[in-house]
């Protein structure tokens, strides 16, 4: 063996001896997740129902994983901008999504410019069902859903306007379905999120709004800036007992809808990192304080999810429900 060959052999042997140590160091690096702040993307402006819930969860998740969780708001496009922000980031668990039926399912299934499909996301864990309510501007002379429907049917020459968080949101489709069912005309006015839509109805820019409930609605009603006519729920948590149920309507007592929310990551995120997030979300869901705060905001809070298989099953249920709603309003999913 020449001196050159001997030197190359010794270098190779040294590399082999160090390989187990390198592998161990790489494993330690993987196990250390997270080692930096996490981004929690909310697909609407600050101040809406999604933003409020995300900040409640973000604080708790941050304590569990011992890293800061930074809430980032990206309004517009019925959640498409926020969703694409998550999908353009690496699938490494450092960016996760405060998503719902609207952004993960309806938007890509109905909007050909979405550039993604529901299955580009993976559900980490469901967090809650939000209760949807119908609000009207204070000057509108109605005090029940049935009276509103009667007024809408009389106003075909100048349709009543309704605000939502955006085109093809569940709230938009609900407005279409309700108008079709009762034979009335309603004109949709899309906003960039719940907070601006709320200001639209409170300021008299639109006649009504279909939005997820927030405690601020009650204060604004007390100030005579708007009226909460009904929920679209068959039952409500105790803090919302003062709001009429859809079952109290004589015209559409079965027109019941809620909206499902959860935390999602980009498909392909390492399973061990998803587990870390799921455990942190589960700890938040078990906190009596957090459950009370979410229930006060009109949420029915989910129980912790114990596995990816369970999360996948819930994802499939969401997909089925969305398909049924799309069929109800006579729409066809984009290819």
UniProtKB/TrEMBL annotation:
The protein's matches in InterPro entries, at most eight in alphabetical order, are given as: BUG, Bug_dom1, TAT_signal
- Keyword Signal tagged: yes
Its signal peptide is 1-29
Q: Which Pfam families match?
A: TctC
Query: Mind listing the UniProt keywords for this protein, alphabetically?
Result: Signal
Protein family (similarity comment): Belongs to the UPF0065 (bug) family.
Q: Which PANTHER family match?
A: BLR1237 PROTEIN, TRICARBOXYLATE-BINDING PROTEIN
| Stated name of the protein | Tripartite tricarboxylate transporter substrate binding protein
Q: Which organism is it from?
A: Comamonas piscis
At the highest ranks, the source species' classification is:
Bacteria, Pseudomonadati, Pseudomonadota, Betaproteobacteria, Burkholderiales
């Amino acid at each position: 063996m020449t001196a050159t060959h001997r030197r190359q052999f010794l270098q190779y042997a040294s590399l082999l001896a160090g390989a187990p140590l390198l592998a161990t160091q790489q494993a330690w690096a993987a196990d250390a997740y997270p080692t930096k702040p996490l981004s929690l993307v909310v697909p609407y402006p600050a101040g809406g129902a999604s933003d409020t819930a995300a900040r409640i969860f973000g604080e708790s998740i941050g304590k569990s994983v011992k890293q800061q969780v930074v809430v980032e708001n990206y309004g517009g496009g019925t959640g498409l901008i926020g969703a694409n922000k998550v999908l353009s980031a690496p699938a490494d668990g450092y960016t996760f999504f405060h998503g719902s039926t609207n952004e993960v399912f309806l938007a890509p299934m109905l909007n050909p410019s979405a550039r993604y499909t529901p299955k580009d996301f993976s559900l980490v864990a469901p967090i809650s069902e939000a209760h949807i309510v119908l609000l009207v501007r204070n000057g509108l002379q109605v005090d029940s859903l049935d009276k509103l429907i009667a007024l809408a049917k009389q106003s075909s020459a100048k349709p009543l306007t309704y605000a939502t968080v955006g085109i093809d949101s569940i709230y938009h489709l609900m407005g279409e379905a309700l108008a079709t069912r009762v034979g009335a005309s309603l004109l949709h006015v899309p906003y960039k999120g719940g907070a601006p839509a709320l200001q639209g109805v409170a300021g008299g820019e639109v006649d009504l709004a279909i939005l997820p409930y927030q405690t601020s609605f009650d204060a604004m009603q007390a100030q005579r800036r708007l009226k909460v006519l009904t929920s679209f729920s068959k039952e409500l948590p105790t803090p919302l007992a003062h709001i009429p149920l859809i079952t109290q309507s004589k015209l559409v007592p079965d027109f019941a809808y809620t909206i499902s929310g959860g935390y999602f990551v980009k498909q392909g995120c390492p399973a061990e990192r998803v587990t870390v997030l799921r455990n942190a979300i589960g700890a938040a869901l078990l906190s009596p304080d957090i459950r009370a705060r979410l229930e006060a905001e009109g949420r029915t809070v989910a129980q912790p999810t114990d596995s990816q298989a369970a999360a996948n099953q819930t994802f499939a249920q969401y997909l089925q429900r969305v398909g049924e709603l799309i069929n109800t309003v006579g729409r066809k999913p984009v290819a």
